[in-house]
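Quick one: structure for this chain?
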Amino acid sequence: MDLTGSAAGARKANAARPDRIVALAGNPNVGKSTVFNGLTGMHQHTGNWAGKTVALAEGCYTQKGQSFTLVDLPGAYSLMAHSPEEEVARDFLCFASPDATVVVCDATCLCRNLNLVLQIMEITPRVVVCVNLMDEARRKGIRVNLDAIAARLGVPVIGTTARKKRSLAALADAVSSVIASEAPAPRRLCYPAPIETAIEMLEPLLAARLCGRLNSRWVSLKLLEGDQTLLRALNERLGSEFLLDAPLAAALGEADAYLSAQGLTPELRKDKIVAALLSEAERICQGAVTHDNADYAAADRRLDQLLTSKRTGYPVMLLLLALIFYLTIVGANYPSQLLAQGLFWIQDRLTSLFMYLGAPDWLHGALVLGVYRVLAWVVSVMLPPMAIFFPLFTLLEDAGYLPRVAYNLDCPFKRCNACGKQALTMWVGFIILYLV
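Got it. Here's what it folds into:
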């Protein structure tokens, strides 16, 4: 069932349900799925939700007699709609009107994860921050003052080790409290003065049109960024109620002209907004996140200088890609030959067996020369390259190199209306193309 519709319709649908809707957001690889499974007990299924005709994992859990439906959103680094995952997550938060949103963060790199937290807090105030992997942070000598982070953000912050289900009880209690209480007042993010002035030009007109269905300040910011995906979504969900009429179009043009006069082109505006988010995240973590080893990030910084600089980033990337392809293609030849010899030796034995049993030729042709031979050929050709390529890819991911590749290629890929993360699927495509 497709529940795509207006924000008001989504709220009405939610109100008709006996349970509360809780969105689960977070960066990839922060333990979001572990939190989801820990709360729901893996009693999950899929459902279509407002904002995108897409199946999202959802599960149910109970807390103090109240039923909750937990919706697992796609992993996203931001809500700036640079990828389909980010667009799905943003549209669900905007148009499905969840009663609360849990943002899962990695305690070992909390500052980086707060970028998404701050963006979600601009959409909805009912946010609970789940700082996961606390045991890993302690092992690395990282100390997180959760109370200080909560005071600075203005929303509950709960530390968890999602693999231990007992640590999720406090998270479930915090979600219940946020839903039951009056809307909290999270920290308001301040942008450079020209952007704040432009927001003030648009916000009154947008507030009158949105009628509280969305945060008018956040929508103003997205329109100033030139986020066409959000504008399309607003027109689809809110219809004629939000179409850019003459007064709003004039105000947007005036704000755009003002920012251009201040030297803020649309691309530079995005840079300023991202810089404000990162600076705010650093201020929140300052003094609240400490490290036993003061030079803990020195090695990473040196690697960044080598792997992401303009001079060495691309050569290292191409050399490493060539090495992986070489190991995959050449290295797979030997196990492929062994597999082929073994599997086709079995084919000969099967042929002898069919002849011994006097089986008709058509049965031998269908089962041995048809089903078995095709399966043996596919396994001997496809399995060895995949068994080499994907573990190598996993090692690069664990070492933190794949995000650096996405960063390196983000700018050229944007010229093709794509994002740097799609370079990783392109690598996989090269291997599959070779095999085919």
